[in-house]
Write a structure and sequence with these properties.
Elements: H1 4-12, H2 21-50, H3 57-68, E1 71-76, E2 84-88, H4 94-103, E3 106-110, H5 111-114, H6 119-124, E4 129-131, H7 139-153, E5 155-158, E6 189-196, H8 201-204, H9 212-220, E7 226-232, H10 243-263, H11 273-292
Helix pairs in contact: 1-11, 2-3, 3-4
């Protein structure tokens, strides 16, 4: 089986993962565990909803699903429980599972996650709102769905980078979906949070031109477990900063400061998915050339 670094390179370049027999056993064992867990949780969830009760089952299930997928969550700090917008960096579809398990939050996530096998449907249980970066005309409808989710579940998580990264860097924060906070509803606070996958970040991260299906298979086939730190940072009143751009800037500053403490130095900018893909393809070409050249 290819080394993990080689597998990461091939994945970023868009090639299907090379999964060993043991890896496929892990994939199917984890899918089976998800199925066994989801059936009673879904039945109980819809029973609660039929009675117009707040359902705890999506949070319990998604937290369990994160553990089945290999995540071992370490919560740092205290989350605000209601009337809160969480702002987080974005690494993987696993983010949704671990944040939901830790806080019960609803989400705004990129539409590619919604088309992922199993993960997309699981995400809808907790009112995940899937958006397209190209659908600039749909922002008003997205904001309205955000308001509905906030009224129903009390917290919503937004990933303002607009895409996933390698977990060891940050992109600029986009402010368009923070229009829900112009003006902010009375009593609402913003709480930034840092997701830290440690050295496993680049391996877990959904980067390059890897498809959602291939990323899910690769993560589920991965042996062992990995730590995911969720650090809930100090909340702030969105009225204390200037509009959605100010909220995005202040949230990014706090997350960058927390990530810098983890890295022990300045936080680099994410190089971009195209660069990851091109670098991976170039590395593959160099390896092919070195094996065909005469000694």
């Amino acid at each position: 089986m290819a080394s993990r670094s080689t597998a990461r390179s091939e994945a970023a370049a868009g090639r299907p993962p090379a999964i060993s027999f043991a890896g496929w056993c892990r994939v199917w064992a984890r899918i089976a565990a998800l199925f066994v867990t989801v059936v009673p949780c879904v039945l109980l969830h819809y029973s609660w909803r039929a009675l117009r009760q707040s359902s705890p089952w999506p949070r319990l299930f998604l937290g369990t699903a994160a553990r089945i997928a290999g995540a071992r969550v370490e919560r740092i700090g205290r989350p605000v429980r209601r009337d809160v917008i969480y702002i987080a960096n974005h690494v993987s579809w696993v983010d949704i599972l671990v944040i939901a398990g830790a806080s019960g939050s609803a989400f705004v996530a990129k539409d590619e996650i919604g088309t992922s096998p199993l993960v997309g449907w699981l995400s809808t249980l907790n009112r995940t709102i899937f958006v397209s970066r190209e659908d600039r005309m749909g922002v008003a409808a997205q904001v309205e769905r955000l308001r509905e989710a906030l009224a129903d579940i009390w917290s919503v998580t937004i990933f303002p980078e607009g895409t996933t990264t390698d977990g060891r860097s940050l992109l600029p924060f986009r402010s368009s979906l923070l229009a829900i906070l112009e003006p902010p509803p009375p009593g609402l606070v913003v709480q930034p949070m840092l997701l830290d996958y440690g050295l496993a970040g680049p391996d877990i991260g959904w980067i390059g031109v890897e498809s959602g299906r291939n990323n899910a298979l690769r993560v589920l086939a991965r042996p062992g477990s990995y730590r995911v730190g969720i650090e809930f940072l100090e909340p702030f009143d969105p009225q204390d900063v200037r509009g959605r751009k100010g909220i995005a800037a202040e949230s990014r500053r706090r997350i960058a400061d927390a990530l810098a403490r983890v890295l022990g130095g300045p936080v680099p900018a994410f190089v971009g998915h195209d660069v990851w893909s091109a670098a991976s393809s170039m590395a593959d070409t160099d390896r092919s050339t070195s094996t065909t050249e005469p000694g």
